[in-house]
Amino acid sequence: MDMVTLTINGQTVKAKKTSTVLEAARAAGIYIPTLCYHPELSHEGACRLCVVEASGARTLVASCVYPVAEGMIVETNTPKVREARKLVVELLLANHPKDCLSCQKSMDCELQTIAAELGVRKIRFAGGEMKAHTIDAGNPSLVRDQEKCILCGRCIRACSEIQGMDVYSFAGRGFHTIVSTAFEQGLEKVACTYCGQCASVCPTAAIVEKDDTDKAWAALADKTKHVVVQTAPSVRVALGEELGIPVGEIVTGKMVAALRRLGFDKVFDTNFSADLTIMEEGHEFIDRLTNGGVLPMITSCSPGWVNMIELKYPELLPHLSTAKSPQQMFGAVAKTYYAERAGIDAKDIVSVSIMPCTAKKAEAVRPEMNSSGYQDVDIVLTTRELGRMIREFGLDFASLPEEDFDSPLGKSTGASVIFGTTGGVMEAALRTVADVVTGQNLQQIEYKAVRGMETVREATLKIGDSEVKVAVVHTLKAAKAMMERVKKGETEYKFIEVMACPGGCIGGGGQPVPVDADVRRARRDALFTCDEACSLRKSHENPEIIELYSTWLGKPLGEKAHHLLHTKYNQQKRN
Amino acid sequence: MQHIRAHVLVCAGTGCKSAGSKEVELAFQREIKAQGLADEVMVVETGCHGFCEYGPLVIVYPEGTFYSRVTAEDVPEIVESHLLKGRMVERLLYHEPMTHEMIPKYSDINFYKKQHRLVLAHCGTINPEQIEEYIAVGGYEGLGKALTLMTPEEVVEEVKKSGLRGRGGGGFPTGLKWSFAKQSVNDKKYVICNADEGDPGAFMDRSVLEGDPHKILEGMAICGYAIGADEGYIYVRAEYPLAIKRLRVAIEQAEAMGFLGENIFSSGFNFQIHIKEGAGAFVCGEETALMASIEGKRGMPRPRPPFPAVSGLWGKPTNINNVETFANVPQIIVNGADWYCQFGTEKSKGTKVFALTGKINNTGLAEVPMGITMREIIYDIGGGINNGKKFKAVQIGGPSGGCLPEELLDLPIDYDSLTAVGAMMGSGGLVVMDEDTCMVDVAKFFLNFTQSESCGKCTPCREGTKRMLEILTRITEGQGREGDIELLENMAKNIKETALCGLGQTAPNPVLSTLKYFRNEYEAHIKEKRCPAGVCEKMAVYTITDKCKGCGLCAKTCPVKAISGTLKQQHVIDQAICIKCGACMSVCPFKAITKG
After folding, report:
1. ipTM above 0.90?
2. Among A17, A257, B3, B511, which has the minimal tally of Cβ within 10 Å of its Cβ?
């Protein structure tokens, strides 16, 4: 690797020849504030907050895009630099609503943090024109408030570079420049999958998850309602970040304890229904494989992904597994099986889910998702929203005891918990499919060939006597490329797992921010730790699942299962 | 063989065309035929002569008689009198505005006498839609020489030696730029001609494209040969339909003649040129935004490095020059760098075309050698300030340029002298302002332009120029505050340091230069709430003087009933009610109302 030596603030720094001044500085422990910069997106040099003095440059330069050079002398903190940065922040604040105290992103806002760090104490342009826009809240998942937009362009880049959906673009000129969808329509009118990656990278509250905590508080306060909650696999390895606990810590027990204290009548686990999903999806796969069904079969747990295929590849819908996602299987079972067992009228049950995902909010209100006779899942909260509720309730999360999920929808296996990471659904399915196909309790549990963080991975696995080629894909951009290949018949895969977000649910649009590759890796590792700690690691070994089938549901793919646990997909036509 | 004894050149530049030159041309065709002169008099449609103020222009050769503001109705008289009887039509001749002297010959007019036309040499003399006319005046000789007698290295060296600098604004040495693109190793390279002329009032590039399009094609092809590119783009505003049409004709003809296409001059060199029409965003004149626009993206600048010479259009090494720059190239190759170096100053060689506008008598295009003084341009070529008013300032370099005062009229104009005094060469816009101009208002005008044309990408330009504009607006409305000048200066300094592209970095120039040379005007606005030039309407004070006869017309006209008085007695205006609309002043039959 070609290296260069430069001097930053008098300190000798070695850096890769291809790195930027910002990268070199950060690697050397020198902090430079940024706003439009995001380590996982292309670099635009737009906000001009990261300006520094560099030898040989005519003006100040944006360190996030300025390449290092041998012998370069950089100063990151001169009076000139500080004055320029302060003016940038002052200008942004002059055109930004001053409702920080009551803003959804308060204390989580990069603009707020930077203004405080740089000591911006006054705005000399008070009384000037400010942008005025209506709020886009016409969809179940995301809220866009353009008045809070600082035009850093991170949402545009995330949607385009990570997800390949290109929902956003800059429009207009000068002071009237905006981040716009096509013809400034609401997200529900354009090809938005509600994956929430835009919200995840937004430094302010310009794009946030739709806050449903008030609905949850109201349900909890309603004494006539029996409020049950399910928690998605990946929430237990990320929630801690919202509550001052280091990245990558497993907080399952404390999370359960917190939910009880918030007032949920039963604290159940989406992991339980993830095991149920594997039972159905695994058998569906075997059925397709042996009875000449449409292959490759593609997973359907990720609602952002389901939206994408419905929007962009309707001709490939027969490839999607008809098994509902764990969230929706839980919802259907909670208001039928559980209601019956507990002797509660389903109409009195409020089913809440805690999800890493903004698209889950939209999934819950799909018209098909009412096989219990009611909306199966009533309220979907993201990890971030649960974090807010816990803070609002005043719980000292760190000191809570570790508690267990309730029965009969609370037990799970190691297979279900890895649903939260890319490759996890595939691995969980393989653990069950291999046992079912061979009729044995195989020693092999882990399928490391499908693990990893590359956006496209493939493996050829021996199941019984036959070899099965599978693929795992995450991010919608990679999914699009894969669908093009499937469409052209270029693949020999029998089974493809797709998750919309980078890293799978651990990188979901509803997870705590900031998030980057390191954070996602720590969350993923924590999920595998959970898996290894489980005594049961195959879905079909889950005793509550066995009980569900034997006492109530019948067989996988049976009539009751078909009615409650499977669905169908339709082309979504938007502009 | 037919013997043509006279040529009637009818200007078909955009200015003359919009003034009716097509009708004039048709009238000539008709009249000449009717008079039986079709075999001996030829009507030629030419490009722009640059003296658009006096269009439609007609020049009759061999005498070189210059007729101005010709209408179709004048044509029978010109044919009858001039072409048949050999007598000039005096009433259509040009008169010098200062001396009122009648000047029959094109070359004797002051506007042209002081010019040195290299770039515009053939504009107005050849038919731009006939490649043969371009060849007849030496066209494609430069390309032929480069391809058959010179190596690419020698071409780059010659351009370097000529001292030619970019005419689009930056003034970067052209040969050096070419050498960077040449050094980049890649199997695909591009040449781009930046014809996105966007400065208000500037039309030099348009005139060259309309009047001598082959010169640009030739310059680009020479560049392609020099840097190793086989494809070129001309990025031209869609608002220049005539230029686009003539470029298309020119490309077709050049391809048919083998000056573009495969194996040009049997040298093995291939070069093709495409036209890309821009939608008129000012920022697309910035090279990285321009390239984004060609690629089909929103025209937004990106940070440099990497420079286009390394990674340009579609990531390939690209050389971008402005129209006027390319127009200089063929003659440098034909006549050599030494010949070219005789024009201009030590560091700025050759000529520069300026678009003269504003309060001067002769507006139009003027090509002058570098080093000429502003005074010569404004007074000798421009014919001085119109209506006998006093000169106040000249704004040079487009919206990002600076306003220079009378003290600097004798400054020799070149890239470096202009930068030193806070202006810039820019693309050559030159707006002359007289004593009736308010300099704060001028700064506001230009900043309003750059603010509304900002691409919105970087904070300093998008938000900063907006706040500066708001401050300037309140100053011109009598709401200026103590400290506003310092705030403007502070913001200007920081925006210049931090903006992403040239547009933002130079946007504060009009404010800085007016603050530097006309600070007292700002102070009068802020401290005395007075606009010395009487331009800023909201600060105007209308007063009724003792010339008032008490007719009462003003009181009747005033829409807010601010005027009172008894009939036949002097009336008064209540300043608290007056909305400064000026209606009273315009109706007063006795000029008794003053504005100050």
Report:
1. yes
2. B3
